[in-house]
Amino acid sequence: MVGTEADIIINDKAKAKAFSLMADAGISAPEYFVRVGVKGGGCSGLTYELDFDNEKQSGDMEYGGEDLKVVCDMKSFLYLCGTELDFSDGLNGKGFNFINPNASRSCGCGESFAV
Q1: Whole domain around residue 27: which residue ranges?
Q2: What is the pLDDT along the chain (115 residues), one digit of tens a residue?
Q3: Which residues contact 70 (CB under 8 A, 6 or more apart)?
Q4: Does 2 map to a domain?
């Protein structure tokens, strides 16, 4: 995992899970990438979005290496800069986690946050 403090990065565990899910769906990188974003809602005010996409939009910002890219729109980037995307498969929960240094609080489920 290499990046600057302002990048959005995907760590090795999350990257491996993303590749596995992409293979299950019959899609592959580099045609597809991980799109992350933020929208209003959730118990803390903002919720994370995560999906696979293959169409970049005007103003998208791109991060990551040659094998898998992370793409984010400019508005969401203001909330997500410096965030690390992780994957957990432990007893305390399973799924993708956003380790967001900008979040002042988050809900118990980890899917919404406030700044």
Answers
A1: 9-114
A2: 445 567 899 999 999 999 999 999 999 878 899 999 998 876 657 888 999 999 999 999 998 877 899 999 999 999 899 999 999 987 777 789 888 888 876 655 555 555 6
A3: 8, 9, 10, 33, 34, 35, 36, 62, 63, 64, 85
A4: no
Q: Does residue 15 lie within any of the structural domains?
A: yes
B/e letters for 92-112, b = 16+ CB within 10 Å, e = fewer, are: eeeebbbebeebeebeeebbb
Nearest to 71 by CA among 19, 18, 35, 32: 35
3-state secondary structure of 25: helix
Instruction: With residue 67 as reference, give the H or E element that holds it.
Output: none
- Nearest-angstrom CA–CA distance, 91 and 51: 24
- Tally the domains of the chain: 1
Q: For position 106, which CATH number holds?
A: 2.60.300.12
Strand duo 84-90 + 9-10: pairing = parallel
